[in-house]
Write a structure and sequence with these properties.
- The termini are far apart.
- The chain is an alpha+beta fold.
- The protein is elongated.
- The strands form 13 sheets. Strands 1, 4, 5, 6, 7 and 10 form a 6-stranded mixed β-sheet that branches. Strands 14, 16, 18, 20, 21 and 22 form a 6-stranded mixed β-sheet that branches.
Length: 1406
């Protein structure tokens, strides 16, 4: 491992105290002060030092720092916190003043392809120079404490020896914490114009050596020289913080001297020139070797006017001072202090030091003492504050006149030992001492990373060094801001680490030094802190960590923006923007991009970060006066809204709140764009047109835009209209070959509309003004000019809410036949920016030729085309009353549709089609259309086709609603309709009118739609239970609840419809009025209908069809056989509603078809819905439907609600044989697993459907509550009990076995308050019960004591048999089981019993 190169700030600090005559000599020669002249000769090349083990350590570069003692005295008494704050502000001001020139230089270098700033940045170099220029001693470390004191006089003085004596006896005003261990050195300058000759000067030098020691030097110079020598470039001096007294004077700028020469302090040169001394090698100022040792052409850095001989003399003095005095003295100090350090580290010393550390030390140890660890200390007195013996080289400089505002420092002998060993290159000793200091919490963690080999342990040293600056941070929501002193020390540490560690090691994966800079940067909004983030980002970019670099550039830019350095902040924002836009390498297969239909070069960046960066750039450009660029940035930010959270969440009292909704970034971007663009147009006039601004978002959706003609409906789903047109085509295909002409042409001088669909992609309200269309004739060569024969509507303003979608109709009228093309939509965005959007959609992808299949080739774009023709057949339809209305569920609503022949030809044939679920009746006046206008008997039959086939188109009888059977051009007619609102919710009534001129002519169509709302008014529920009475088999309970909450509803009629069952009322026929939130209960009795017909044929039909489905055979198109329904009415008034009226029958058929269709789609999703009409019938024979007629007398409103009632009777798995056959038959194997799963799903759905239900046919009734009186003085008695078993099946016999039990099982749910029944006689009763018949099983109880005996200890086992024809004689009837068996017991909660009362206890006799 090569020896580390120490940073410049860790070099020895040499103070100079010169007599006034020295400064006069230099002023006459036009030279700067002596410390600045000597600083030009640092660093020295090829210096060799020795360690404590006498090992030579070569130093390719040995730097020195020279300063004036007076300057140190003036600055050392300033409070360190104050000086740190001033330093941070001073660095920030220098960055702010120089950033413009830096960025101009970087831009010019980038254009010219230079490499000057490829591996470094000017702002970081400036920060390093400012930090390295800090030479004021600190109480926390000893690097800036003077190592040597040079006392300089000249031979031009009246008495040089007396001048030197005055300098020696001068008192120094230093604070008590300052370590004054230093070497005293005496310099005699002998200029050429001195009154002393060379021999006298030599004698004077010998006298000084004899009196003050060998650390002396005679420096002969040729000053002043005439003419003045040419200026020689020298390394620029590091900038230094101005003192408090010089803040008001412009001392930072270079001041010309008397003879015109100057020491210029400007921008740090790109590559500082070497020292003017002859050097055997390049003088590396940092850890990076210099690439060129020759002075740069056109160099404008610092210069000095010295002859070559004087340069040689100064260089010889500096080298002799270092090699002959400073280094040996420091080596001597290290040896002596190491002896003391080693003795203190022996076991007894460590034990005693541990004892003092654990149990306390003497009280005097806590008082600050003057450092006296020199080899030959001197004692201060009131008369002489600074005295040295004649040959003393190690001295203690003590001051008692200064008063410090801070406590005692931490610079002791061990720290000075570590610092001296570090400077001399004795790294082994230095590291051990630094480790000792670190363990004793006296520093050292900041220096160990500079001296040690790269390892993960160095990261811990860095963390410890930074943590000791701020201490434990308080727990608070706002970021903790460290004090200025801690911020500055962290900045110094970061500069030393970056400068002192080789960059290859610093950026290695072991150290990751760029993270050290981020750790050193505090949360303060200071420019030096921002430069730490910026340089960390720069180093991360060199490492290839672009995302991390972009993040840190963002942080740096944000801090610089807050401090007002906007130009540099914009540069960092642009750097972050470029890095976030740089695509990441993706090792993906080329097939991936083809499958996703994306380009491998497509990269959107990070949409959650990039808009925030662009917005900040736009704001900065706007505030700096570049409004045009700001407008472009703001306009580019208007992108479609995404779900990303904003960069700045809402805050409450300075803290982010997750409860508040995030503010819309689109609103901020849009408002900034409007303000900036208005300002630009107001100040620059018509210059905005030269910007060629294009709106980055689109509002028009060309694919959803449609052309609407006068006969078309505005609302309604397009697929629903296509379904109606397909229904018409299917209906007319069996009657003729005439086609239905599509409404795809407009008439001359007739307004048609382009329904332009516009969608706001932003999360903020926008305004589009002057919205119109660009329409041209298809044969016109001019693409963007609208012809004079066209009238296009212009919409003044359209307001779109956030993410709102609207359809805006734009009217167009053409005065002659033509073929038109709608090409573009134009508008003004917020009445500011004109925009044009194309309404063309991309053509289909071509795959016809091999070339087309190998690439992406598309057909030409598809434009919106409209054909204009002379007016022919036109029919306009609209509702007479187009107000929005709200209906109650089941209400009848009378409506009228106004039909107008607006064409030039007559209409002789008119048809009407409605939606599948719309219940609409045309009141043509030829029949009793009003549902409430009849008075039928209480029982009637209803013939039904029992088919799910959709309704056929209705031909409107024009002769019944019009004066003639033909609609001439201009004729108008009203079509009366009755609407039944069967389904609640928002509904659309769609009507398609198909018409033509005469037979053989093509058909045309017109559309009309009406939206209405249906609210539920009644909630009807049913329940069913077997009846023990012989008068009815079942009892149906009907509950009607008024859920309207506002009006009383009167139930006028309750009707039932069934094939096998007839119902009758079990209550009175008085009117029933149901109040709001009230319930009315009705009871119906159900008995088998003897005159039933069609049920057997229906079951055979469904079995045959299901068998074909399960066998995967083709299904014929035959429909179910017709069926006859018995209708029973429970009339609550004198006037009843007949279900046989055409309108009522039509409404009931439509409602039932809708219910059955929806149920079949849900139960059989794998059977195509278009084949349901050929498989399933409309009615199930065992189902009873209920129709509830209601009225609102106060509002004169009426209607009915159709309810699919319960299934009565027992079901016996009618499809059992079909399912078993399908399971056992050999099915053709399929290679697709989906086919097998689909077959299994169909089979499972058939097994669970209503046509394959099976229920226990036996209902058991026990006579409950009978009381038997007996005198037990006569002994026990027999109590007869009976069990009635009824077969609820209408078709199948049942074999029932009644088993009685005398002992109840150990069931805790059984109540023990009843006595177990003591049966006498048979306990098992067997019966075969015919369909719809019942038997009674008699049993006896042998009762020995009075009490209540339970009758719930019984079980019935049932077996269903096959049906037998009624014509078969009894002798030939053989029982054949259907293999359906059931077991039933009393239901939970049933407690039938018989009570036996002992009348003998009361003295009664029979």
């Amino acid at each position: 491992m090569p020896p580390p190169t120490l940073p410049y700030s860790l070099s020895p600090h040499v103070c100079i105290l010169a007599s006034p005559d020295v400064q006069e000599v230099l002023d006459r020669a036009g030279l700067p002060p002596l410390p600045e002249i000597l600083q030009c000769f640092s660093p020295l090349p090829q210096i060799t030092t020795r360690t404590t083990s006498l090992t030579s350590v070569p130093h390719p570069s040995f730097a020195l720092r020279f300063s004036d003692v007076v300057e140190i005295e003036n600055a050392v008494h300033e409070d360190e916190e104050q000086r740190a704050g001033r330093t941070m502000d001073w660095i920030g001001s220098r960055i702010s003043q120089r950033c413009e020139r830096w960025l101009d230089t970087l831009e010019s270098e980038t254009r010219e392809g230079g490499k000057m700033w490829r591996n470094r940045t000017p702002w970081w170099e400036e920060v390093k120079r400012c930090v390295n220029g800090d030479h004021i001693p600190s109480s926390t470390e000893g690097w800036n404490h003077p190592v040597s004191l040079i006392l300089a006089v000249s031979t031009t003085a009246v008495n040089p020896l007396q001048a030197l004596q005055d300098l020696t006896s001068r008192a120094f005003d230093f604070p008590p914490w300052m370590d004054l261990t230093s070497m005293r050195y005496f310099l005699i300058i002998h200029p050429s114009n001195s009154s002393l000759t060379e021999p006298i000067a030599e004698a004077l030098f010998n006298a000084v050596k004899k009196q003050y020691g060998l650390h002396s030097f005679l420096l002969p110079l040729q000053l002043p020289s005439s003419p003045s020598p040419a200026p020689v470039p020298v390394p620029a001096l590091p900038p230094r913080l101005p003192t408090l007294s010089s803040l008001d004077s412009p001392s930072l700028t270079p001041q010309p001297s008397i003879n015109g020469s100057s020491l210029n302090r400007g921008l740090a040169p790109p590559r500082p020139p070497p020292s003017p001394m002859p050097q055997p090698g390049p003088p590396p100022l940092t850890n990076k070797p210099a690439e060129n040792t020759q002075p740069l052409i056109g160099y404008n850095g610092s210069t000095i006017t010295l002859t070559q001989d004087d340069i040689q003399q100064f260089g010889r003095f500096v080298r002799e001072f270092v090699t002959m005095s400073l280094v040996p003295w420091m080596e001597k100090c290290v040896v002596e202090w190491n002896e003391t350090y080693s003795s203190s580290r022996r076991l007894p010393s460590r034990l005693f030091s541990s004892t003092r550390r654990l149990f306390g030390a003497a009280s005097t140890a806590s008082s600050p003492a003057t450092p006296t660890h020199g080899s030959n200390p001197s004692i201060s007195s009131a008369k002489s504050r600074f005295t040295h013996g004649p040959n003393n080289s190690v001295s203690s400089i003590t001051s008692v006149t200064s008063v410090s505002t801070m406590g005692g420092g931490s610079v002791n002998q061990q720290r000075r030992l570590a610092e001296f060993a570090t400077i001399l290159g004795d790294y082994k000793l230095a590291i051990s001492v630094w480790e000792t200091l670190r363990k004793e919490a006296r520093g050292g963690s900041d220096v160990v990373p500079l001296l040690s080999a790269p390892s993960p342990a160095l990261v811990l040293h860095v963390d410890h060094a930074l943590a000791t600056l701020t201490g434990p941070q308080p727990r608070q929501t706002t970021p903790f801001e460290a004090p200025a002193h801690a911020q500055y020390r962290a900045l110094v540490y970061a500069v030393r680490w970056e400068s002192g560690i080789d960059r290859q090691d610093f950026l290695s994966s072991v150290l990751e030094g760029e993270r050290w800079l981020v750790k050193a940067a505090s949360s303060a909004e200071e420019p030096p802190t921002a430069t730490l983030y910026a340089h960390a980002a720069f180093l991360s970019e060199l490492r290839g960590a672009r995302r991390r670099a972009a993040l840190w550039y963002l942080v740096a830019a944000d801090k610089l923006e807050k401090t007002g350095i906007k130009r540099l902040a914009m540069y960092f924002f642009r750097k972050a923007h470029d890095l976030y836009q740089d695509p990441m390498p993706k090792e993906l297969s080329p097939s991936f991009w083809e499958s996703e239909d994306k380009s491998s070069m497509h990269w959107e960046g990070f949409p959650a970060v990039l808009p925030g960066i662009e917005h900040e750039l736009g704001r900065l450009l706007y505030t700096t006066g570049d409004t045009a660029a700001a407008v472009e940035y703001f306009l580019a930010l208007l992108q479609p809204c995404q779900s990303a959270r904003p960069l700045h969440p809402p805050q409450i009292n300075g803290a982010a709140s997750p409860l508040l909704p995030p503010p819309s970034t689109d609103k901020v971007y849009l408002e900034d764009f409007r303000v900036a663009f208005k300002h630009y147009k107001a100040t620059e006039g018509e210059k905005w047109e030269s910007l060629n601004l294009q709106l980055p978002i689109t509002f028009c959706h060309a694919k959803q835009t449609r052309v609407r003609f006068p006969g078309d409906a505005v609302e309604g789903d397009s697929t629903a209209w296509e379904t109606l047109e397909q229904d018409w085509s299917s209906f007319w295909s069996t009657r003729g070959k005439e086609n239905l002409g599509k409404s795809g042409k407009a008439a001359v001088n007739e307004m048609f509309w382009v329904d332009l669909v516009i969608k706001n992609p932003l999360d903020v309200e926008v305004s589009l003004s002057s919205l119109t269309l660009m329409v041209r004739e298809s044969s016109s060569p001019q693409l963007d000019i609208t012809g004079d024969f066209l009238e296009v509507e212009i919409i003044d303003e359209v307001m779109l809410g956030a993410r709102d979608t609207r359809t805006v109709p734009i009217g167009i009228k053409c005065s002659r036949p033509a073929s038109l093309v709608v090409t573009h939509a134009t508008y003004e965005f917020f009445s500011l920016l004109p925009a044009t959007e194309s309404l063309a959609t991309r053509g289909r992808r071509l795959n016809d030729t091999p070339v087309q299949r190998q690439g992406k080739v598309y057909a030409p774009d598809v434009l919106i085309k409209v054909e204009i023709e002379e007016a022919g057949q036109r029919l306009h339809a609209h509702f007479v009353d187009d107000r929005h209305f709200i209906l109650a569920q089941g209400e009848y609503k009378h409506q009228r549709v106004w039909l107008t022949n607006s064409g030039t030809r007559r209409i002789s044939e008119l048809w009407m089609l409605t939606g599948e679920e719309d219940e609409l009746w045309v009141d043509a006046g030829d029949d009793l259309a009003d549902p409430s206008s009849s008075n039928p008997p209480e029982t009637e039959t209803l013939q039904s086709s029992n088919s799910l086939a959709p309704r056929k188109p209705y031909r409107v009888p024009l002769d019944k609603i019009h004066s003639s059977s033909v609609l001439e051009p201009g004729d108008e007619v009203q079509l009366p309709l009755i609407l039944h609102a069967a389904h609640h919710g928002e509904q659309d009534l769609r009507m398609l009118f198909v018409f033509r001129e005469s037979e053989g002519a093509p058909f045309h169509c017109a559309r009309v739609t009406r939206r209405y709302e249906v609210k539920p008014i009644l909630k009807v529920t049913t329940s069913v239970r077997p009846s023990a009475s012989a008068a009815q088999t079942f009892i149906i309970g009907v509950e009607v609840e008024n859920i309207s909450g506002a009006s009383n509803v009167q139930l006028t009629q309750l009707s039932t419809m069934g094939t096998l069952w007839s119902c009758f009322s079990l209550g009175s026929h008085s009117p029933v009025t149901v109040g709001p939130r009230q319930v009315a209960e009705l009871s119906l009795g159900a008995v088998p209908w003897q005159a039933r017909s069609g049920s057997t044929e229906t079951r055979e039909f469904i079995a045959r069809k299901i068998q074909s489905v399960l066998k995967c055979e083709p299904i014929d198109t035959s429909e179910p056989p017709p069926i006859e329904l018995v209708c029973m009415h429970t009339v609550q008034d004198t006037c009843a509603v007949s279900l046989n009226t055409p309108a009522t029958r039509h409404f009931l058929h439509c409602g039932r078809r809708t219910m059955t269709t929806q149920a079949l789609r849900s139960a059989h999703p794998d059977i195509p819905s278009q084949s349901h009409r050929s498989i399933f019938p409309l009615y199930h024979p065992s189902t009873v439907d209920l129709v509830v007629f209601w009225e609102l007398p106060a509002q004169k409103r009426a209607g009915h609600i159709l309810l699919q009632g319960p299934t009565l009777g027992a079901q016996h798995a009618a499809l059992k044989e079909v399912i078993e056959e399908a399971q056992t038959m050999k099915v053709k194997r399929s290679m697709y697993a989906e086919t097998h799963r689909e077959r299994q799903a169909i089979l499972e759905a058939v097994r669970n459907c209503e046509w394959n239900q099976e229920t226990d046919p036996i209902a058991v009734f026990v006579k409950d509550g009978s009381v038997v009186e007996h005198d037990f003085r006569d002994g026990p008695c027999h109590v007869p009990v009976s069990f009635t078993m009824r077969n609820l099946s209408l078709t199948h016999p049942a074999k029932a076995v009644l088993m009685l039990s005398e002992r109840s099982p150990d069931d805790p749910s059984i109540h023990r308050d009843h006595i177990d029944p003591p049966y006498a006689g048979r306990l098992i009763h067997r019966h075969i019960i015919a369909p719809s018949q019942s038997v009674v099983a008699h049993a006896k109880l042998w009762v020995t004591r009075p009490g209540t005996y339970s009758l719930r200890l019984w079980t019935v086992e049932t077996e269903v048999g096959e049906p037998v024809s009624e014509d078969t004689p009894d002798s030939l009837r053989i029982w054949k089981s259907r293999h359906l068996r059931y077991i039933q017991s009393p239901q939970m909660g049933e407690r039938p019993s018989v009570s036996v009362v002992d009348i003998g206890r009361f003295g009664l006799s029979r």
